[in-house]
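Bumping with the actual sequence this time:
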Amino acid sequence: MSELQINTTQNVKIKFEASGVGERLLAFILDTIIKVAYLTVMGSIFDAFDGMDEWSEIGLNTLISLPVVFYTLVQEALLEGQTLGKKVLKIRVVKIDGYQASISDYLVRWFFRIVDIYIFGLGFFSIAFSKKGQRFGDMAAGTAVISLRDKVDISHTILEDLKADYKPTYPSVIKLSDNDARIIKETFNNVRASKDYTTLIKLRSKIIEVTEIKNQSGTDTQFIDTVLKDYNYYTQNM
């Protein structure tokens, strides 16, 4: 697998492992099995309805096929960049610029499946030879598929080690998403290691802007550390 470098909104570079052709192909096969199983079950159910005219059969077949046609688009939109197949293989669609992919990004990827999958499987060749492991749909949408299988410890996740008697300070941190918390923690760890206080101030300002909370924790470092702990407290106990 190739290494994928993502620039976050705070201009901090985060490294991930791009998902390889094998993982993505296997996820595609799993999703295909699910779709075939669905069509088989639905077909057997509606075979019981005999005597329908030709147009009724066409209409019914069209209705049944809609979940298959929009399977990838709907699942990636609802599961934040994953289908059931991707979930099993622990891979996810992300934006190259660090933002969470939007419905329009998933729509572009879904539309390009015509080229990537149904025209001689060109997308799989593109993944194999692209530096970022992108198919044409990824290139058009500005996305990539990353592996979530990395061996990481708690410092590489959004999780924080909280004491049993921990008392939160900022309830408004629930306005953040898991993706926000991940970016904040990655940026926070990087700026502390590099002593980049300018970026630290920008990060603090952005958190205050999004959550609309005031610093009651002392220094910027203490404030951001408290925000991350509070986010963990509220999301783990909801």
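The tokens above came from a reply further down the thread. Strands lie at 3-7, 13-17, 91-95, 143-147.
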